[in-house]
Amino acid sequence: MSSPPTLDAAGAADQIAAAQRDLQRVREELGRVIVGQDGVVRLLLVALLADGHVLLEGAPGLGKTLLVRSLAAALDMQFRRVQCTPDLMPPDVTGSVLLSESGSGPRFDFSEGPVFTNVLLVDEINRATPKTQSALLEAMEERHVTAGGATRPLPDPFLVLATQNPIEMEGTYPLPEAQLDRFLLKALVTPPNVAELVAIVQRTTTGASAALSAVLDGARLSAIRTLVRQIAAPPALLERAARLITATRPDDPAAPDAVRRYVRYGASPRGARALVLAAKSLALMDGRPHAALRDLRDVALPTLRHRLILSFEAEADGVDADDVLTTVLPSLDAA
Questions:
Q1: 225 burial level (CB within 10 Å; 0-12, 13-18, 19+)
Q2: How confident is the model at residue 136 (pLDDT cuts 50, 70, 90)?
Q3: Peptide bond before 157: cis, by omega within 30 degrees of 0?
Q4: For residue 122, what are the β-bridge partners?
Q5: Tell me, what's the pLDDT at 168?
C-alpha cells in the first residue's frame, strides 16, 4: 500500500500561509454581507475544505439563505436553491427524462435538476417526504445521479447545505439516520446579539447592498483541498479521535454514564473520518502543518451531534446530543 502524501518540508510553510490568506479573504468578503455568525462561517469553510456537506439548524429569519448564497458568490460557484415541501418529488431535485420532438422525430432528453450545481441549498429539508430526502443520498455520497438508465456525474466541487427549522415540527419528516450521517457537520445558527442586530438593521434599511467579489475559484479550492489531506495527523491524535468515537457507544466499557443512559447508538466510522478531516481543515485555516488535540475538541460537537441516536429517556429528561457529548469530551485527554 502506498504511503499517504506529505507536505514538502521546504515549501510547506509557504503553501499553508498562502492558503490561510486566501481563506481569510473569503471570510472578509462574507463579512461585508453577513453580520456575526463567525463560528458558522468557519464551519462552512471547514466543510468546504474537507469536501463535506453541512446541516444548518436555526429558526427562520437568521440569514441562512443569504449566508449560503454569499458563500457561493465569494467562491465564484454556481448556486441553486430547492424549497422543500411535502409535494416535492425526487425528479424535482435530480432531474428527469423528457420526451421531446426534433427534426429526426421524437427523442428522450434528460433535463437536469437543481442538484447539478456547485452549491445546493436545500431549504427546510425536513419538510420533504422521505422519498425525496433519499433522492439526495446518492448525490451527496456518490457525487452522481442515476436517471433514465444513465449515471451522470455532478459538478466538482459539489456542496449541499441543508437547513431545518427546529421549532415548528408539524408537517415535517425527521431525516433518517443514514442521511444524517452523510453530513460532515451540523452547525447551529443562533440569533444575533444586540450589537449585531443593530448592524443588521442598519445594513438592510438603507436600500444599499454590497456586491460580493469572487476571491477564490474552483482550481484554487481544489489545490487547497489537496493541501488539507497532507496536513499531518499523528498516530496519537488518531487514537484519541478513535477513543472519542467509541466512547459515544453505550456498550463500550469507556462510555460515561450519560452515554449508557441516554444513547441508543453512537457515532459510526464515518464520524471518525469526519472528525479527523475537520480537524485537519481547521489546522490549515489556522496556518498550522499538523492537526492538534484542540482541533479535535473544537470540531467534536458539530461533527458528532447529529450522529448520536438518543433514547426516549433523553427526550423526557430534556437532554440533547450536545449535553451527552460534553460528558464524552474528557476522553480526549485520557492517557
A1: middle
A2: confident
A3: yes
A4: 82, 162
A5: 66
What single string gives the DSSP state of each residue in 19-40?
HHHHHHHHHHHHHTT--S-HHH
- Which amino acid appears at position 272 of this protein? A
What are all long-range contacts of 215-219, with beta carbons under 8 Å and residues at least 24 apart? 215/22, 215/25, 215/26, 215/29, 215/74, 215/75, 216/22, 216/25, 216/26, 216/74, 216/75, 216/76, 217/75, 217/76, 218/75, 218/76, 218/77, 218/118, 218/156, 218/157
The tens digit of pLDDT for each residue in 166-199 reads 776 666 778 878 788 889 999 988 888 898 888 8
Signed CA dihedral, 196, 197, 198, 204: sign only: positive
Per-residue pLDDT tens for 192-251?
A: 889 888 888 887 777 666 677 788 887 888 888 889 998 988 999 999 999 999 999 999
Residue type, 126: N
Higher pLDDT, 50 or 5: 50
In three-state secondary structure terms, 198 is helix
Q: What residues contact 152, with CB distance under 8 A and at least 6 apart?
A: 110, 112, 116, 144, 145, 146
DSSP code of residue 78: -
d(CA 299, CA 283): 11
Distances from the Cα of 85 to the Cα of 129, 138, 154, 186, 304, angstroms: 8, 20, 24, 21, 27
pLDDT at 137: 77
Q: Which domains does the chain have, with CATH numbers?
A: 233-335 (1.10.8.80)
Q: What is the CA angle 110-115-118, rounded to 5?
A: 120
Rounded Cα distance between 122 and 115, Å, is: 9
